[in-house]
Amino acid sequence: MEAFDGAAAFKSIEHCSSLGRDSHTVVADMDGTLLLGRSSFPYFALVAYEVGGPLRLLLLLLAAPLAALLYYSVSESAGIQVLIFATFAGVRIRDIESAAQAVLPKFYSTDLHPEAWRVFSACGRRCVLTANPRIMVEPFLKGYLGVHLVIGTEIEAYKGRATGFVSRSGVLVGRNKAAAMRKQLPEAAPQIGLGDRETDYPFMHLCQEGYVVQPNKQGLKALPREKLPKPVVFHDGRLALRPTPLLAVLTLLWLPVGFPLSCLRVAAGSLLPLRFVYHAFRALGVRITVRGTPPPPPHKSAGRSGVLFVCSHRTLLDPVFLSIALRRPIACVTYSVSRLSEIISPIPTVRLTRDRAGDAAMIKRLLREGDLVICPEGTTCREPFLLRFSSLFAELTDEIIPVAMANSTSMFHGTTARGWKGMDSFYFFMNPSPAYQITFLDKLPAELTCGGGNKSSHEVANYIQHAIGSVLSYECTHFTRKDKYMALAGNDGTVPEKAKEETSKFRVAK
């Protein structure tokens, strides 16, 4: 590795005061400085899996030993170039940008160095100088940390696809970092420079003050989520854990076992009578916890409406697990669900059209036929937040039972905004031991409904949102389906017009 004299001149970050820095400029390295982790491999691995699946992740893993050898025996630049080539070669630029926008911020935000952030956040102008590809890190740094300037390694592209090579300026390490900083900040020397290794010393010497962030040997914990300047409410991607080399290997080794196991679990849930599914899932490692008192089956009578179960929305399996908890199939209304998911569903599904009058008439008809499940958030959210509840359901019935749904996974996420939704159930069941928690709340009192209490539909929807949020300790928000899809996929989440016009027939439960 390239050495630089004068390292003893830099003090530890703990000696840097954060007071009176409002007018100061700070320039910081990323890995090992702003982030606790010194290795960028997990973030390359996340992008590799999202843009190329298991095969691209396997290619990156095979290239990792060569990258490590070059990193320590030749130069930091050579090692990073290998990672860049293995991850990006042949990949569409827009896919890389999409992964950087939708996937990486969640993982970066859970690895912020508290001491570095204390100094970095105190400065009025924030700049990051990193060897990582700028295309990977810029969405997080600018969108979530308020960084004004990101100077990173630039990758080459041809006809909209990455070549796997970097631009002529090379990987930004050592004196390349210093040269890039002089070019981008020529007016004056920044007040503070933050780094963690010898290859950061050249640019730190160009700053008025330089501070070193020591390797995390004390078990220092990342900055708590509540102290982040902007919370990560929405994120995408299939991998649930930051894939270190060991976890990446374990993930690839698990796939040949996990996918057949997932198919077996899906088959059990789809083909067995619901009264047996609970025990079958338990035998197959799927944990189901039911809290509260599930209501008994309804007694049909003339003019009586079925019960409307209003659920928080975590995955498309919410209505299925609710039916398992009740030991009987409950019909559900859906939107933008894949045909495969409808085919393998063990419960009746009916598509909404997003036409308010038509959907209202459909829901009323279904309630006359029996109980019904609805998820008024309109889309799933992985984090401990509840999206805004659509108020339509409150106008249609006073027979409402709120249900708090929560789940836990250890390896894969069972939702996607950018990928094929037909794999959502399979990814959820590919987790070694996925879990669902279903909590039945008390039936909504008549005085809190539109009919019995003269409440507005918005008041009812907001009350139920906060009741479910209180049970789950989730934060209630005003975000909507459109907000989620604009953040993750760059669209409003609507389906093509042709798909809107299709109607799903009421399927008989298996």
Give the CATH topology of the largest domain.
Glycerol-3-phosphate (1)-acyltransferase
* Mean pLDDT across every amino acid position: 91
Total number of β-strand segments? 17
Provide the gyration radius in Å.
26 Å
Distance from first to last alpha carbon = 64 Å
Q: Which architecture of the largest domain does the CATH hierarchy give at level 2?
A: 3-Layer(aba) Sandwich
What CATH first level of the largest domain would be assigned?
Alpha Beta
Q: Strand order, main sheet: write it out.
A: 9-16-15-10-13-11-12
Poorly predicted runs of 5 or more residues: 1-5, 496-510
Helix content: 40-55%
Overall structural class, as computed from helix and strand content, comes to alpha/beta
Q: Determine the strand fraction and express it as a percent band.
A: 5-15%
Tally of distinct domains = 2
Shape: elongated
Main beta-sheet annotation: 7 strands, mixed
Number of helical elements: 19
